[in-house]
Amino acid sequence: MGSVMKIGIITIGNELLSGFTVDRNSAWIGQRLLESGMKVHVRQTIQDDYDDICDTLESMWEEWQCDYIIVTGGLGPTVDDITVSTFFDYFDDKDEFDREYWNKLKDRFKKLNFKIPNLNKNQAYKSKKGKMIENLVGTARGLHYTKEHASLLKNVKAVFKGKSKKTHFFALPGVPQEMKSMFTNYVLPLMEDELDNKVTCKSIRTTGIPESILQEKISDIIDSNNQKYDIAFLPHRMLGVDIRLTSQDSKLVKNLVESIVKRIDKYVYGFDSDNLEEVVADLLVKNNTTIATAESCTAGLLSARLTNVPGSSKYFNGGVICYSNQLKEELIGVKKETLDRYGSVSEETASELAENVAKKLDSEIGVSITGIAGPGGGTEKKPVGLVFVGIFYKNNVYIKRYNLTPDRNINRELTVILCLNEIRKILKK
Q: 105, 214, 317, 350: which could join 390 in a potential S-S bond, CB 3.0 to 4.6 Å?
């Protein structure tokens, strides 16, 4: 059995370190690699600086002994884009002006009714020692170099059938769509061809249970095999916690997943890339069930999540945003007596909203949300963060009361998540 390939990612850009730009490239690459049975061992974000780039390349090659080093960023035409020239120096390469490619760039700009700036000449140089990676959606070509690990040549573990350990270096654009194109069409196929020991990764997606309690519930399962696999508890903002299992033993991962799910089934809403609204959508379609919404404090956020899924017209009949008591009464049919006696934020109002919106919009399920999102509007009896969710289904109304946070945005977003999960649980019964 071969060893697991070691992969390093370097993202370059002053904007990444300052916080003006969020590094989503490395996360995307990491996810694609896991899907293909590989995992990232080290990741670093550095500034657009010649010495920093060289030092980080050397560190990942020499110290981390990575088999693949993937660099993103700094391939543009402007003065701060120095990755290509730094790569040429690092690999002791001589750049050569590529007139044929320059003419292609000029033609591309001409078709867009632009005269190509001279700055773009920086993108028309090619390597003599490495390979150029075609850019199908932009102007900056990528680079691919290989380098033998001289310090390991004397190590018998690094030599197999006369082949020395070789590290692949890739320089890809920082622009996401360009990077994704190059990675998908060039880098990933090459890595998959050389993969001899696949890693199995499985994520169990949970909601409605804190990370510490979740681990406590399955501690006896995971402690028995912790030398043979990696486990990570990955909290997501408000949504819940993912349990990610990674191992070279696919059977072990399968058995662990089965044991864990059996233990915490009521908290599990999906696996891997599943999201809550897609899970709810699948259940609605399988049950041939339609749904309608009446939202107050969330102002249509639930409807938006339900219709994020392609094909939502199969199950979503419509939604009403009824902020005012007048609309609750006139549009949805909440009794005036109910509003006067209990108020708009109450179990009674949520119940009538859910049942009436289902009947008015001819749906099997009616969902209502009413609450005090904040920051103002709360009282001692009804504080900010008080939310009622009503779900009408099969002539029954299920009411959930939540006491959330002082933060308006969190309350709105969290309410939608809690509501989707309640719909999921009801449909699974």
A: 350
